[in-house]
Amino acid sequence: xxxxxxxxxxxxxxxxxxxxxxxxxxxxxxxxxxxxxxxxxxxxxxxxxxxxxxxxxxxxxxxxxxxxxxxxxxxxxxxxxxxxxxxxxxxxxxxxxxxxxxxxxxxxxxxxxxxxxxxxxxxxxxxxxxxxxxxxxxxxxxxxxxxxxxxxxxxxxxxxxxxxxxxxxxxxxxxxxxxxxxxxxxxxxxxxxxxxxxxxxxxxxxxxxxxxxxxxxxxxxxxxxxxxxxxxxxxxxxxxxxxxxxxxxxxxxxxxxxxxxxxxxxxxxxxxxxxxxxxxxxxxxxxxxxxxxxxxxxxxxxxxxxxxxxxxxxxxxxxxxxxxxxxxxxxxxxxxxxxxxxxxxxxxxxxxxxxxxxxxxxxxxxxxxxxxxxxxxxx
Amino acid sequence: xxxxxxxxxxxxxxxxxxxxxxxxxxxxxxxxxxxxxxxxxxxxxxxxxxxxxxxxxxxxxxxxxxxxxxxxxxxxxxxxxxxxxxxxxxxxxxxxxxxxxxxxxxxxxxxxxxxxxxxxxxxxxxxxxxxxxxxxxxxxxxxxxxxxxxxxxxxxxxxxxxxxxxxxxxxxxxxxxxxxxxxxxxxxxxxxxxxxxxxxxxxxxxxxxxxxxxxxxxxxxxxxxxxxxxxxxxxxxxxxxxxxxxxxxxxxxxxxxxxxxxxxxxxxxxxxxxxxxxxxxxxxxxxxxxxxxxxxxxxxxxxxxxxxxxxxxxxx
Lengths: 379, 316
Description:
The complex is a heterodimer. Helices cover 72% and strands 0% of the residues of chain A.
């Protein structure tokens, strides 16, 4: 904690020379220097706090819901699903369905989506060196939004499909939008990040325009698309968990293992090059991983906003600017935060639902202003 | 350009006014026995007092429910256009209009002399008033009594007041006979009606809810409805705990739902309705319309769903 008094730039220069880790070698142009001091390493105590936070959040979220179930009932249901126990009480049919098929997958999915959005947000902020960057910066949101809108509008013709077309369409739309952003950004400004961000803005506006046009022509679907955009896990089950788990797992592992590279980027492209790191390749790798994971997450959760900003910034303000701390902690706190936000979403207006995006934005908007004030102070 | 079209329009209007006036006089003379009302007339609709100078002959209906009523009261031949959501009767002159247009000028190519709306979201009534075209708004009915007053308003506005009253009576009779058929099976049965897969539903305080109540059925959303709207959203947990005996899906068209997709959703396979095969399809639009055709269809669908249970019971 005392280290916070050191200005971020000083701390970075002194401490964040990367070690010669495997992912670093992948992007190296020459042999990497030997290790130096690593004072911004993640502490066991910090990790423990994050793990406990997530565990408590998940436990509380499992115990509470629109239907009052005693902790004993919830435990009984969980135990009855453990292998080799052979405990299957009949009276648990309804409560069992509530805990095992509704609450638990929802809690797990909330954790996956939250960890993905928070770590992707942290990664984007590192890559673009901009504390206001979030996972939707390059067009994921507008692409996923357009994809979902097309699926909803075409639903009467897609009803014969054996799967829900909305997540697939959202995923494809998100990837297409970010792909277009990259293609345009490259052709416009080479490897300059600001031209990438600007082409993200242009692609976002273009996709949103098509989406708005489709909605305007087909007003009865407005409600459905709108509630998708606001985000939520109301209809989540194990199917959604299985759907996004591979993407989120791969993306999270990739981002967490790139934490040192993100620290390297923060010292500037030239300095990074001098220690053997190809900044442009690093950026591409990290943005690709973050985008893939984000696209998968929003395909099942809708456009849950602000998590990618609130969580990494809270962590940054608390433990300092090193991504070696921010990334792993974002995964855990992001998961816990979204689990709690979803708990609020499904209990505040029970038995109705507050859109998850409304809960996170309600908390996120004031927080965002605090972050803005902080960053001005730092300037 | 615009000026030219307005001048042409007013010319056309004047012509149609003269024609309709003549027709109205003739009609009154010929059909005076069935009690067609006289013009000019004033109608008390949701948008206030509307004065209609002559019997309309070019009606544009931008409400699926109003379209059904217009045809039921015998004003079908006066209808020159209906919105794209008016699916009944099949031979109604469908247009691409939605009733949510932003500019009343769009409607002028049909040269309407009466426009009927369900909602007036874009101040279209006011725009039409500037063009001296009367318009009435018949908002979603909340009870059979409000259906009755809409029948009367439309009957009066179109010159079919007596026919409107008898169309209403005939509708009520059909409802009563369907209810009588299945009321015994419906008493105290719990049900859930779904408008989209995120569990948006209607309580028994809504119009569609009152139709179920006629069978003595109990709505599982009632105890959840703190919101005044009558169309609350439930959570999956709540629905599973409430464990309804009957499920009615009014989201089969919009959202591709079916008994199969319903039971495949997380947690819903344990519901009594699912295990007893009591998950029924209700046409999306039928469940949200209050025209006589839709109401009778809806009530008959509910009766059939309850009777199907009785048949299954008997066969065991």
